[in-house]
Give the backbone structure.
Amino acid sequence: MHAGHFIPASVGGLSLYFHEKNVHAQCARCNLWLQGNQYIYGVRLGKRTVNTLNALRGKIVKWDESDYLKKIEYYKKKYAKLKDIK
């Protein structure tokens, strides 16, 4: 599985790169060869979410090392909770 982005990082920037509504598991075929299969992706996200993500498109966000470290900690905790669900 790949981390498929509805709005790719090249267009969305950091404001969408880690946005949890913008990133979902996607097979390699859809992500690479079908350019993210964006139409189907957008339909499944719904109009409201697509509009929210489009409003963030290209927003300039600057991150420093501490921002990345916070993200790493956030996802480590989230992953640990998922492991506890089993």
Helices lie at 9-12, 14-17, 28-33, 38-45, 47-56, 65-85. The chain has a mean pLDDT of 89. The CA atoms of residues 75 and 81 lie 10 Å apart.
